[in-house]
């Protein structure tokens, strides 16, 4: 039997810790100021609130998933004013956990990937998965309904991303490029195992790629996994994780007000980030974090406990009902076509996208991805580093540009190119060992 007061304290610790992971941009002082976190749900869309004020033309789009969720998608153009210029290849941006499409525009226009892509001539589409503030509608459910939050990243991959890809493909009549970060890479790789989805994708670039999570080194998440706090939350009827609600803000205020050691929690969650733009924290906190579901967190924790890249585990008997087998089916990475060009960027200080887990995934892939290894980069640096354009984005765009707008089989460059940036000889050897293992 669970001791209720102890469980409540444990849950509050879990919830407080989760928001630090999601925002990845905090100090103790920032989170103890409730006014920085509390923000009413915006009436205007992402275009009007965020992108157009920076001078970039933007249009709002909506599409409906098979299970009834209404997803918001934005289309962004260059701010050059040359509207007659033919659009380049379509690129769909897929965000990570507890953030949304605005994550690609959090830095200045010359540092944010969404703006950079638009000014480089790409046809930029911004995805927002269900539950985030830009995708909080359903044909029959309200966000107050328990059923509204009955999903994990499995549905994000097979329904949300699948539908967003179909929508962009139907509008542009062109296969599209996919760029994902963190959870965005999980759902991308899972979706690419589905033939009806991957056939509409021309190439993909994955920042901090995650499939297997058995070897993550993030200290606090590992502690929370061992405490089974995700399961406690579900047992207590917590289905929505919304840290901009009054109770979410109160929990964070209380936990950082002398009850928990809040020093260096960002490093404990994500690993050391070398180049995070801390000067824009107040601006970040106006938009982050976005809601997600407790079931989604439970699914991610299952991956850490079980070391699998598989569908949601309901338990043996419910698995029989959902899948017709005792264990959840695995997402088979070998089903991703060898003809799909892949580019992956990962860092030596990333406590989530561990090199051992990455190696496991690379061995299962048919294709040889192009790899960029940055020794001093952590999990958040690939999205919010002050040097991400020079360190990451220019190299990613060189990969896309090498493919051309229309990718023909005979014109595809040889896969398996590796770049690295490190002064540590042992790290170089580690990268070369990884290369040889997938050759």
TrEMBL record:
<feature type="signal peptide">
    <location>
        <begin position="1"/>
        <end position="24"/>
    </location>
</feature>
<dbReference type="GO" id="GO:0016042">
    <property type="term" value="P:lipid catabolic process"/>
</dbReference>
<keyword id="KW-0378">Hydrolase</keyword>
<keyword id="KW-0732">Signal</keyword>
<feature type="active site" description="Charge relay system">
    <location>
        <position position="350"/>
    </location>
</feature>
<feature type="active site" description="Nucleophile">
    <location>
        <position position="182"/>
    </location>
</feature>
<keyword id="KW-0442">Lipid degradation</keyword>
<dbReference type="Pfam" id="PF04083">
    <property type="entry name" value="Abhydro_lipase"/>
</dbReference>
<feature type="domain" description="Partial AB-hydrolase lipase">
    <location>
        <begin position="48"/>
        <end position="107"/>
    </location>
</feature>
<dbReference type="InterPro" id="IPR025483">
    <property type="entry name" value="Lipase_euk"/>
</dbReference>
<protein>
    <recommendedName>
        <fullName>Lipase</fullName>
    </recommendedName>
</protein>
<feature type="active site" description="Charge relay system">
    <location>
        <position position="379"/>
    </location>
</feature>
<keyword id="KW-0325">Glycoprotein</keyword>
<dbReference type="GO" id="GO:0016787">
    <property type="term" value="F:hydrolase activity"/>
</dbReference>
<dbReference type="InterPro" id="IPR006693">
    <property type="entry name" value="AB_hydrolase_lipase"/>
</dbReference>
<keyword id="KW-0443">Lipid metabolism</keyword>
<dbReference type="InterPro" id="IPR029058">
    <property type="entry name" value="AB_hydrolase_fold"/>
</dbReference>
<comment type="similarity">
    <text>Belongs to the AB hydrolase superfamily. Lipase family.</text>
</comment>
């Amino acid at each position: 039997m669970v001791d209720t007061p102890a469980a409540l304290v444990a849950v509050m610790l879990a919830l407080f810790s989760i928001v630090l992971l999601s925002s990845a941009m905090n100090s103790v002082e920032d989170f103890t100021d409730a006014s920085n976190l509390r923000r009413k749900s915006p009436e205007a869309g992402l275009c009007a609130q965020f992108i157009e004020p920076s001078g970039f033309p933007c249009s709002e789009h909506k599409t409906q998933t098979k299970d009834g969720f209404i997803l918001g998608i934005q289309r962004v153009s260059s701010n050059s004013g040359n509207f007659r210029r033919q659009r380049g290849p379509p690129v769909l941006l897929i965000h990570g956990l507890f953030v949304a499409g605005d994550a690609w525009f959090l830095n200045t226009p010359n540092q944010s990937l969404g703006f950079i892509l638009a000014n480089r001539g790409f046809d930029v589409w911004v995805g927002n998965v269900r539950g985030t503030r830009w995708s909080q509608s359903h044909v029959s459910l309200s966000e107050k309904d328990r059923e509204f939050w009955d999903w994990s990243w499995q549905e994000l991959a097979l329904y949300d991303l699948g539908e967003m890809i179909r929508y962009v493909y139907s509008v542009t009549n062109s296969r599209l490029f996919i760029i994902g970060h963190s959870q965005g890479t999980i759902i991308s790789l899972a979706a690419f195992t589905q033939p009806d989805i991957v056939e509409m994708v021309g190439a993909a670039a994955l920042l901090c790629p995650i499939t297997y999570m058995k070897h993550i080194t993030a200290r606090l998440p590992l502690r929370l996994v061992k405490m089974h706090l995700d399961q406690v939350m579900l047992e207590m009827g917590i289905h929505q994780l919304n840290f901009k609600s009054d109770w979410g803000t109160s929990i964070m205020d209380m936990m950082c007000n002398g009850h928990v050691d809040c020093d260096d929690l960002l490093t404990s969650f994500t690993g050391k980030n070398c180049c995070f733009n801390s000067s824009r924290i107040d601006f970040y906190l106006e938009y982050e974090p976005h809601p997600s579901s407790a079931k989604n967190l439970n699914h991610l924790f299952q991956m850490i406990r079980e070391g699998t890249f598989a569908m949601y585990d309901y338990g043996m008997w419910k698995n029989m009902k959902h899948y017709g087998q005792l264990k959840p089916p695995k997402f088979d990475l070998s089903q991703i076509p060898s003809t799909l060009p892949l580019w992956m960027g990962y860092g030596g200080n990333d406590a989530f996208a561990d090199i051992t887990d990455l190696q496991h995934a690379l061995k299962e892939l048919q294709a040889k991805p192009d790899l960029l290894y940055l020794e001093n980069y952590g999990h958040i640096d690939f999205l919010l580093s002050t040097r991400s354009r020079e360190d990451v984005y220019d190299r990613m765009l060189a990969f896309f540009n090498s493919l051309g707008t229309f990718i023909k089989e005979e014109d595809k460059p040889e896969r398996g190119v590796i770049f690295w940036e490190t002064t540590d000889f042992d790290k170089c050897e580690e990268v070369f060992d990884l290369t040889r293992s997938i050759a």
